[in-house]
Specification:
The chain has 210 residues and is mainly alpha-helical. The protein contains 8 helices and 2 strands. Strands 1-2 form a two-stranded antiparallel sheet. Helix 2 packs across helix 3 and helix 6 packs across helix 7. The termini are far apart.
Length: 210
Amino acid sequence: MKKIYKQLSIEEREIIQLGVWAKKPIRIMAQELGRSASTVSRELRRNCPRIKRVYLPRLAEARAKSRIMKRGKRERLKNERIRDYVKTMLRNNYSPEQIAGRIGFDLPGQTISYEAIYNYIYAQYHRGGYGKCVGDDLRIYLKRRHKTRHPKHIPFRPQRLKITDAISISERPIEIELRRELGHWEGDSIVSKQSKYGLNTLVERKSGLV
């Protein structure tokens, strides 16, 4: 079962203030509060600048309430026209990837990434998808109706290899550059984003034979 995080109270923040004044370690303050050390650490990181080392519990409380009020209200897409387009396409069974590919044809001059569409869909919910929805529940139009966003698994990642003892193309002999004699080949590689396989090509510079 997912553990629900409970916001710090003003009383707990006042205890943290006393701990900062007494220069207590974070773990000691966390034990006194019955909280995790990461909770206290995060609170101080947000509201206690290292330069001044001044922690104001009332100000921290006001900031926390402001973050809660704003949660889920940020518009993730560029404008109302794009947001309406995305909602319509989702309701017509288009995936975020398909919407990102089509928008330039349907709305000339407009662009949006599928990642931005996913962020927009999941930004409507408190606590990463487990809280109250503050907008339209667009998750129901996704093929996989997860409550939270699940990062895509990449089965392989291309390895970037550094060529050792490489010779610059500017150093090749002038007779090769002028294409006056046969026997000089130029190699190149083509790699598609859709596949892990590549294509190597060889071109004879004088004849153009591939």
